[in-house]
């Protein structure tokens, strides 16, 4: 159903776009919440994803499945939201006297693990950016190797190799 709506929306059908956005919103929010431990942050990322889909649906050509295209937008948006939140927190730390704010890493094992993973992905991206997307698409978005290869335009073997390398690097950052 989403495939057909996406194709129609890409061709300029506004009603199809509105129906598509309403249909994917719950799933997008759930997927953003896989990245971001705070619900409000996941909502912010979700809104950004929906906005990006609306703005960029014309670039969806149907070469890969709509869900694959959407997963990439979700992963990038959630990671961008995290970077933005981190930057804002650092700026506020300089402007406001310190006060006790619970650190998600110590208040929730799950939230702390997500934040640690996002930090590790950010570090990896600064050194080996080509490794990040395959790992995120496989381990967080749970796409098949074939889908990742199609979307990134690289051989499936290269996808598997990059995922293996990325996991090793992230493991080092997390230890």
Domains counted in the coordinates: how many?
A: 2
Give the name of the CATH superfamily of the largest domain.
RNA polymerase sigma factor, region 2, helix turn helix motif
**How would you describe the shape?**
globular
Poorly predicted runs are 98-110
Question: What is the terminal-to-terminal distance?
Answer: 43 Å
Structural class: mainly alpha
Amount of beta strand: under 5%
Tally of alpha and pi helices: 8
Which CATH class of the largest domain applies here?
Mainly Alpha
- By CATH, the topology of the largest domain is Rna Polymerase Sigma Factor, Chain: A
The largest sheet is:
none
> What's the oligomerization state?
single chain
Describe the structure.
- By secondary structure, the protein is mostly helical.
- It folds into 2 domains: 101 residues, Orthogonal Bundle (Rna Polymerase Sigma Factor, Chain: A), CATH 1.10.1740.10; 70 residues, Winged helix-like DNA-binding domain superfamily/Winged helix DNA-binding domain (Arc Repressor Mutant, subunit A), CATH 1.10.10.10.
- Helices cover 81% and strands 0% of the residues.
- The chain contains 8 helices and no strands.
- Helix 1 crosses helix 2, helix 3 packs across helix 4 and helix 6 packs antiparallel against helix 8.
- The longest helix is centred in the last third of the chain and has 32 residues.
- The chain is globular.
- About 7% of the residues have low confidence.
């Amino acid at each position: 159903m989403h495939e057909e709506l996406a194709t129609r929306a890409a061709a300029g059908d506004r009603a199809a776009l509105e129906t598509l956005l309403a249909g994917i919103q719950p799933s997008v929010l759930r997927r953003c919440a896989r990245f971001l431990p705070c619900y409000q942050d996941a909502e912010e990322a979700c809104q950004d994803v929906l906005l990006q889909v609306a703005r960029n649906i014309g670039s969806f050509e149907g070469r890969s499945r709509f869900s694959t295209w959407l997963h990439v937008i979700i992963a990038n948006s959630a990671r961008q939201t995290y970077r933005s939140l981190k930057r804002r927190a650092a700026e506020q730390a300089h402007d406001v006297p310190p006060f006790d704010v619970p650190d998600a890493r110590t208040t929730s094992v799950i939230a702390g693990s997500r934040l640690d993973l996002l930090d590790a992905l950010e570090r990896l991206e600064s050194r080996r950016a080509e490794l990040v997307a395959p790992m995120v698409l496989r381990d967080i978005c749970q796409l098949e190797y074939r889908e990742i290869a199609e979307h990134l335009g690289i051989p499936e073997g290269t996808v598997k190799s990059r995922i293996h390398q990325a996991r090793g690097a992230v493991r080092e950052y997390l230890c």
